[in-house]
Amino acid sequence: MLLTGAQIVMECLLEQGVDTVFGYPGGAVLNIYDALYEYRDRINHVRTAHEQGASHAADGYARSTGKTGVCIATSGPGATNLVTGIATAYMDSVPLVAITGNVNLNLLGLDSFQEVDITGITMPITKHNYIVKDINDLADTLREAFQIAGSGRKGPVLVDIPKDITAQTCEYERKMPLPPLPHDFPIEDRFRQALEMIARAERPFLYCGGGVISSEAEEELRVFAKRLDAPVACSLMCQGGFDQADPRYMGMLGMHGTNTAALAIKNCDLFVAVGTRFSDRVLCNAGLFARHCPIIQIEIDTAEFNKNIEVQLKVKGDAKEVLERFNRLLPQQSHPQWMEQVDAWKKEFPLRQEPKTPNGVTPQQVIETLDRLTDDDALICTEVGQNQMWAAQFYTYRKPRTFISSGGLGTMGFGLGAAIGAKIANPQKTVVNIAGDGSFHMNCAELATAAAYHVPIVELILNNEVLGMVRQWQKLFYENRFSQTDVDPTTNFPALAEAFGLKAYTIETADQVEPVLREALSQNGPVLIDCRIDPDINVLPMVPAGASVESPILEMDN
Amino acid sequence: MEYTNSNPSPVKEYILSVLARNRAGVLLRIAGLFSRRCYNILSIVAAQTEDTEYSRILIVVSGDDRIVRQVDKQLSKLIDIVQVDVLEREKIVEREHLLLKVERTLQTSEKLVEIANIFHANILNVEPDSMILELTGDAGTINSFIELYNPYNVLRILRTGAMAMPK
């Protein structure tokens, strides 16, 4: 059938099973938005306050469902406003398709109004990108974009479409989505070698990254951990990939990991890593990371082998497939003494925050209360900084895709948009965005989106009136010279929320935490909580720059 | 037992032969990858292959063994790249093309021609005060050729970068 380019875009979205997209209209995408109007009964479009919000919403949609998120923006500034969101998705391997409009073909390259070379700009932050210069290529390009975004190590793909391509017509024929691109499976010998190393090990350490969640390997991981009889630590990206209520769980590993994980890595004799790229936030000092024991790395992206750290056995492949195979080959291991030792460390070094004033509120109290009041399916989004680390430390994530956070890029302003996307994808689940006052300020305009579309999320601001994480570094390494981190705040968050049409609450004392959270969670609309906390509560443990992950700081004076 | 990171192998030159889909921007994708991952390109030669759908790109990189393996794997991840081969110098024929302009005086003229003859280089142009020579050879030959002309005031050098083909 003969369709316009814009209609072909809609049909290709439907081919992929896309029913929700996030975006913002503009001149170069007028035809696409006209088609969205025509297809409005089949494709739900959510207009955010800013294109960046749309990119984070599509990302939150993808992280919470495993489906590929879609965002749309116009040319020029619309496209560049997506950049932070695309880079965020790229660093955390989130499947995303970004569709941008561009100026007419004959205006390309002439510095035309709202023209920008968005394929050039996004080349380093996409798995691949396209500019479509022939309408006959449009449908296949979009199909390939979805195929690439969702294959292997997932990630964002951008398709730039000049305006006249969206107006031209060509024959369109509906097709099935392309199968995922093939990926490697380990050679049999690697399993044999791994089994030998495991058999020799008396104190194995199992460490998991985001690959567990993106390959949906949580069940295989649960079985494998039991079979290996090892304690388990997870990266920030794997929060929820392993049940944190399981006694094997030690907490996070890395810069703000638990002391138990630090002691375990110091004492282990085999380190098994699944679906992880050994980010510098985990390695800390790479030269001092697990140097006394061999490392087995299971990873789908072979470029991650020996990139940040040299490993002794590389097992390339999808975490789910590889663990499944291990679970069939690996006999039950038994390390009761080691497990008891780890358990003793867990009891000796729990995470604990003390209020700085009588009846003062600690993030630990807020987040643990939130944990009690929400079920295992609740989705917890975060911003970036102290709020993010506390959200990871104090909430017990029991299922994959329940923790949504910008790990690799560390994008302040990510959480609110992501929470909106996650809630729209999961209307039946509770969605809370744990924010800091700094991150909230960055993209607070997205409260307008939550209000306009009646998206019942809870925006929980842990408000310490400072940029806490940077300030913490200034305390440790810059002699309390609080450069630009403690600018006197003047924003009245509850009043701001009310202006956007949200219900707002304030928590100032410890005894208000539970009743306010309870009430906020029971509302059938978006709400904001301004939760006042002391500016001098730090994220601990902390591994200072250059130090070994085995020796975190456990206490700070101020 | 200590599992230290193995000592890096010595830095040397590697030749990568890259088969890529002949699509707009593919060279930019490769160059961008090298730049953002801090790999060094010493030379790059690109042209269509016998099949116009594909380009063959020869890249000479400098680095240790680990870097070159990283380059290989990162390049292989680019969607438009079909295949990456790290060529072994013993198993290839390698050619590079050089144009060299050197100062010429009455005293040096004969000497300049003599060197050219030793290398079977072509004399493309002779002016009263300069001379342009052309040579094709592997990197080693080209380097010694340039070295021999260096005392005579080399005015300009153009090198294409290495082309290489497995035997």
TrEMBL record, chain B:
User: Where is the ACT domain positioned along the sequence?
Assistant: 15-89
Q: Which CDD domains match?
A: ACT_AHAS
- Which molecular function term from Gene Ontology is one that the record holds? acetolactate synthase regulator activity
Q: What pathway does this protein act in?
A: Amino-acid biosynthesis; L-isoleucine biosynthesis; L-isoleucine from 2-oxobutanoate: step 1/4; Amino-acid biosynthesis; L-valine biosynthesis; L-valine from pyruvate: step 1/4
For this protein, the Enzyme Commission number is 2.2.1.6
What biological processes does GO assign it? isoleucine biosynthetic process; L-valine biosynthetic process
PANTHER family found in the cross-reference section: ACETOLACTATE SYNTHASE SMALL SUBUNIT, ACETOLACTATE SYNTHASE SMALL SUBUNIT 1, CHLOROPLASTIC
Its name, as the record gives it, is: Acetolactate synthase small subunit
Q: Which organism is it from?
A: Candidatus Caccousia avicola
